[in-house]
What we know:
The chain is mostly helical. It has a single domain (about 15-240, about 260-465), classed as MFS general substrate transporter like domains (Growth Hormone, Chain: A, Up-down Bundle), CATH 1.20.1250.20. It has 20 helices and no strands. It has helices at about 5-10, 15-35, 45-50, 55-65, 65-70, 75-85, 85-110, 115-120, 145-175, 180-205, 215-245, 250, 260-265, 265-300, 300-310, 310-330, 335-360, 360-380, 395-425, 435-465. Helix 2 (about 15-35) runs antiparallel to helix 11 (about 215-245) and helix 10 packs antiparallel against helix 16 (about 310-330). The longest helix has about 30 residues, at about 145-175. It is globular, with a radius of gyration of 22 Å. Keywords: Lysosome, Membrane, Transmembrane, Transmembrane helix, Transport. This is Lysosomal dipeptide transporter MFSD1.
Amino acid sequence: MTNTNKIQQTLRDSKAARWGALVLLASAMFFGYIFMDILSPLQELLQIQREWDPAAYGRYAGSETFLNVFVFFLIFAGIILDKMGVRFTAILSGSVMFLGAAVNYYAVSDAFVGSSAETFMNNFMNLPLSWWNITPFFDGMPASAKMSAIGFMFFGCGVEMAGITVSRGIVKWFKGKEMALAMGVEMAIARIGVAVVVLGSPVLASIDPVSVSRPVAVAVLLLLIGLISFICYAFMDKKLEKQLGENDEEKDDPFKVSDLGKIFSSKVFWLVALLCVLYYSAIFPFQKYAINMLQCNLSFSAEQAGWIFFVFPLGAAAITPFLGNFLDKKGKGATMLILGAVLMIVCHLSFALLLPATQSVLVAYLGIVLLGISFSLVPAALWPSVPKLVDSRLLGSAYAVIFWIQNIGLYAFPMIIGSVIQSSNPGVTNPLEYNYTVPMLVFASLGVFALILGFMLKAEDKKKGYGLELPNIKE
C-alpha cells in the first residue's frame, strides 16, 4: 500500500467525518459564547438587583481575560496544546469553562446574598479605582461583582484555551481542504450563541420572579453539554491520529519551547496579531454595552434592544461561510481585512453621531448590519492566514500568542469603556440615560488603526509572498 493510499483512507478525507468533527468543536464554542455574554443584555437589571454601576460592570466584563493576559495563561495553553495535542487540551478547556461558570452563577444567585462568601468578598481587594489598579477589583465594587469576576477569570482561561484548540483542530482536519469555510462555519455557529443570548437572556430573567441568575444557571448547564461534545470529539481525534501514524508531520518534528522565538521575530505575524486585537477590541467589548447603548438612544426595553442587536450575530453567521468559501477558492484575505476595517469605522461612527441625532431604528439596524459584515471578515480571512505564516508544529503556540495579544484588548477595553461612560455622564445614575457618543468614537478609532495595519499587511504580503491573497484550497 502506498503512502498516498494510506493518506486517502484517513478520517479527514471523509467529508462527513471532518464536518462531523467540526460540529462537535463548534457546539462547545457555541455554548461558550452563550455564557460569555449571558449578562450583557442584563446591565440594567444588574444595576437594579445587584447594584453594579458601569465601573463595576466594566471591571467584571474585563476580568474574563485577566489571567490570560497577566499570568500568561494563554501562552502556557498554547504550549500545552502543542505538547499534549488537541483532544487533551479540548477536554481540559471544557472543564475549566464549566467550573469557572459555576462560580459565576453562585456569585449572582440569591444564595450568595448574606453568605460568608459575600462578607469575605466585601473585604477583598479594596484597591483605589485608579489608573495603576490593573486588577478587576476596586474599593466599593459590590461583593457579587467581585466573585463573578473571579469565576469569569477562570471561565476566560477555559474559553480562550478552547478557542485556540478549536482553531488548531480545524487546521488538523481541514488543511488543504475547505479550511476558511470550516473556520467560518465554526464562528457562525458560535455567533448564533450571541443571538440566543441577546433574546433569551432577558426573557429568562423576566420570568416571575425576576432573577438575574436564572439565565446564568441555564448557560452553566449548556457548558456541561459543551464539555461532553469535546469528549466525543476526542474519540474521533484519537482515531484520526492513529490513522495518520508516522505520516503526521508534527510527530517527525516535535515542538520545542525555544521555537517561540521564530514566532516573536516575524514582522508579518505581529501585523496579523495587532489586527486581531484591534478588530476584537472594537467588537467583543462593544457587545457588552450594545444593548444598553440601544436602550439609551432609542428608549427601548432590553428585550426590544435585543431584537435589534439580534441582527448582528445572525447576519455574521449567515455571511461568514460564504466569505470563507470565497477565500478558499479565490483568496484575497488581506484585501478582505481592509474592507472589514472600513465597515467597522462606518458602523461605530454611525452609532456615535447619527443614532443620537436621529434616534432612528433604521440607523441602528444599518449600523448593526455593517458590523456583522465586518466581523464576518475576521475569522474568514484572518484565522486561515496564520497557517501560511508559521510551521504547523508551532500553530498552537502561534494562535495562543495572537489570542494573548487579543486578550490584552479584551481585558482593557470593557474597563476603559465603563470608565468613559461614567466620566462622560457626570451625575447620571439612571442606567437608561447614558450618552454613548464618546465610547462609540473610541471604538471607531480602533477601526482606523486596523485600516492602517491592513494596508501594511497587504504590502508585506506582496513583498514577501506569504500567499495571504491566494486561495486556501490546493488543486
